[in-house]
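[step 3/7] fold_predict: job queued, chain A
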Amino acid sequence: MYIKSNRINLIFRLTYLFICGFGIVRHLSLSDTVRNINMLSYFTIQSNIVCFLVMICSIWHSFMSVRKGWYHDYAKIHLFLKGLALLMITITFLTYNMVLTGKGFSMQDGFGAGLSLNDRIVHFIVPAMTWIEFLLFQPKGSFGKFAPFKWLLAPVIYFIFIMIKARYVSPATYGVGIKRYPYFFLDVEKYGVAYVVKYVLIFAVATLIIGYIIRTIDFVLGMIYTKVQKFRIKRRKAKMKG
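[step 4/7] structure written:
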């Protein structure tokens, strides 16, 4: 249940890489260090960067397949990282739409929620293209039973990173524009430890559920693909005998 055409693969992935890279660059600045520190603290930007890097690996796979003239299998670590990237960008999409938009959230100063082209690229277009790439171009049945637990490592590391960063952002630095907490639900000083822990636990459970939804879709499509392939082989053998 996936497209094996190396050239179509390559064209789509190059387009994806350009759009994803464009969205990341639009959020950064060559001269504004404070802006870059703030932007790189967002899970949104980090998930887009992970997608960008994983897509480079996928493009290399497509390029080598085109060069060799035949389709070759993915490395296990590559498929694991593709699943991780898909989970991270799905969390980005869902969090933005289900948690943040109602709070008037925007990563761009001077823009309302959902009005910035930059926000649309990293919160909508890249997640949609990542799912398209997964459904159309990735071999199915690739994720193990415990892959979602391993993918959970990404948001856990992110949470630890934000807490450490917040701990060492001094009032003076905070005063020049560096945000301690990129998202309101991580703000321990404002809302308290219990509030943040509650959100963290909710996100952890939600992340596992989303991870297993992805794994189930992958497993089911893999089973369908296997059955279709077996049916085609039987039909070819029947024709040869006939």
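[step 5/7] annotate
The chain has ten helices and no strands.
Residues 110-114 have pLDDT under 50 and may be disordered.
exit 0
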